[in-house]
Amino acid sequence: MRAPLFLRPIVPLALAALALAPEAGAQAPPAQQPPAKPFTLEVEVDVVSVTAVVFDKAGKPVRGLGPKDVELLENGVKQDVSYFREASSLGDPNERVPLSVVLVLDTSGSMAGNLHFLQEAVLSFVYKMEEVDTALVVSFNESVKGSAEFSGDIDRLERFVEGLQAWGGTSLYDAIHYSLGRIKDQPGRKALIVFSDGADTTSSMEDREVVDYARAVEATVYSIGFKGSGLMASSPRGFLRKIATETGGQFFAPDKVGELIKVFNAISEELKNHYLLAYTPKRPADGTWREIALKVSRPDTEVRVRKGYFALKRRRSAD
Rounded to whole angstroms, what are the CA distances from 95 to 8, 57, 272, 273, 310? Predict the structure, then answer.
């Protein structure tokens, strides 16, 4: 199990240089020995991070919860919460939790008539990003293309989105798998926003492989399945709903492209209102799947968290 980046300790160890005595009769060189290269040991502690969205019956975020208001369960066993933080759009801007988001956008041929609606909705999301947030844009048709790096530069993201073109098939599974790989080591809150108007037609990955990988990455997937020009039988909505549910995200199924801006705005608002928790499991890591559940003491509330994680054994790496 990887510790969340805000909890992972990095322990530097300085190695002293060994001065070797010169051979008999040889003169010692006057120059000083260069300093030894520092040695860094990174330890991945057994800590699990959980992002929780708590909302009332009206769908509005519930604020002001504390550690005493929640009960975190792993496979039905209560765990001790070691870290608890509320991330709210109403909080101190200087204490905002950074967001890393990948915008995974369908640019297959079937999107030719609707691409400008998608671009407008995506840009509405980008314009609402905070200064601490970064985004990566991944477009897919029969191939997958991602921007070079995560960026908070709005103008740069805008140019990438405006340059999208629709053609070719649909490598939906490959695109999500690629995006999860890009985001898994990013700091703070991690999320994917996936949009597609048709079922996968050209991926090398299988849907089950992608869902399993999503379970192993601490990123929330928000998916949007739009019924495009194809038949309903080719809709990706079943897969998109599944991957969103497993990761604690949400699935949207707008009937009109004009609703996309509303959907992206709703996702933007939710990403700014959530809770971050962490705990050390009471059971040692054994590579098995562990279910996660979060109960809130306040009445009439609903909670959304990822379904669980794979309890990977601790590893050590030295650079």
Answer: 19, 28, 12, 13, 30
